[in-house]
Write a structure and sequence with these properties.
Length: about 100
Amino acid sequence: MDNKFYQTFCAQGILSPTLEVGPALIFGLGLAGESGEVADIIKKQFGYGRKLDLEHLSEELGDVMWYVANICTTYGLKLDDVLEQNVQKLRERYKEMYDGK
């Protein structure tokens, strides 16, 4: 999937009350909540011996990405640029792992 398409697609779901309250606040809190749901799924696997529900995990990771994309939109960042910056940072910081590939 194209990151630009995804970011534009996600922005279509921004509700007017979110804009009134402040998107950064709502999206930041939403990201924290969804990240917590991801952590809870993993906790249940390791802490309670439950079988990992990959479909549920994938769904929650998608929710995390929705919030990430909309935080980028809120601050005028391109998701592509954020990802590329992260790749460059990791390559510089952990050269032995990423080997410039």
